[in-house]
Amino acid sequence: MYSKLVLVAGLLATAEARFGQEGSVQNLIQGLGEFGNPGQAATLAGQSPGVLLAGANACAKLTLADTIVIQLGDDPKVIAVAIALVAAEKNFNPFAQSIPTICSDVSLPATAALRGVVPLIDPAVTGSDIENANSASSITNPFQAEGLSVADVIIANGFSNFTLQGLDGATAAVGDAGKAVATAAPAATSTAAVDCATIATLTTVVTAAASASATAAPDNVVIGVINGVQQSSIAGLDFGLCIPTIKFVGGLGGRPATEFTFQAIDPLVSKGQQEALNPNIITNRICDQLTNVCEANAAAKSACLAAKAQISALGTRNADTANTWNTALGFDGADINP
To answer: Which residues form the signal peptide (predicted)?
Structure first.
């Protein structure tokens, strides 16, 4: 379990103002360097400020939180930090908008240990005291969230002063959305308003998450073949008709045997796409095909986009690149030179 002293020290060093909060979360993710492959925590940390900016898609931080668990594992320390990201307040400019945006995608977050956690809201928003109390409570006592989006959970528990936003960026007013989710079971909440700008709140969020996750780490491994298709080892990722792995082979497409290029292994994915020296061409193709022909679910598409960003950030063009991609999507050990 995380030491409270270490967490408090880290937060005190970075949480100086509301619009600096993304740095606090970034430092927490950066501190997970002992997990995953070398450099993965740093890459994920580098992505965190962008998902908390005012203009970021409301679903982006949930996707990143899932990716943290996918890539770094389900150790209680990892889960604690991922929960902190889910609960973190997204930056908000009250001079540019009157209400915040909340993710309405029911598949996010896909990680069981992260579901039912709701985010902090800027105190300038009417009704934020209710939501911020709910957020603090949800860290240790998550709300019932089966079949519900984060937006649904929030509405069901008394706060609706926000705009719905999907993974594709489309927005909509809350309207009558609350009527459809009124049966969600509320968790116990504090009656006191939560000042989400304070260091104390951030510290409470993370230390409570560490304690909760230490006793409730999720079982996120799924192994097997369904309808003849090898499944990802990561629960919640359904790639449909396809296996999204990459190979790194010499001599493809009539090239010299000593010239190695990347290509999707699955013929349904690679159909119509030539091999490439640049792995980003192939990762982009795979993510496109998940929608076009593979019938993958939303969680798998989100994981693919996160892995694509990771490969782009790595900037490498070797066997490790292919292995990193395959591992990120739950196909660790896939043969990259079949």
So the answer is: 1-17
Domain assignment present for residue 189? The answer is yes
Cα separation, 309 vs 44, in Å, equals: 10
Count how many domains the chain has. Answer: 2
CA distance 204 to 273: 50
Residue 122, in any domain of the structure = yes
| CA angle in degrees (0–180, nearest 5) for 105-110-111 | 145
Q: For residue 242, which of 292, 294, 283 has the smallest C-alpha distance?
A: 294
pLDDT per residue over 197-232, tens digit each?
A: 353 444 444 444 444 434 333 333 334 545 456 788
Model's pTM, two decimal places?
0.53
Give Cβ neighbours of residue 215 (< 8 Å, ≥ 6 apart): none
* Per-residue pLDDT at 229: 67
Angle between helices 298-314 and 40-52 (to 10 degrees): 110
* Rounded Cα distance, 92 and 55, in Å: 8
260-264 and 246-250 beta bridge pairing: antiparallel
What range does the domain containing 53 cover?
Answer: 4-215
Question: Looking at the predicted structure, is the pLDDT value of residue 154 above 70?
Answer: yes
Boundary residue ending a domain (215, 248, 273): 215
Strand order of the β-sheet with 171-173 is 101-103, 163-165, 171-173
pLDDT of 168-182, one tens digit each?
889 999 874 433 332
Q: In the numeric block, which tokens belong to residue 264? A: 């999707």
Do 119 and 61 lie in a common domain?
A: yes
C-alpha triplet 54, 60, 66: angle, nearest 5°: 140
Written as one string, the DSSP assignment of 45-61 is HHHHHHHHSTTS-TTHH
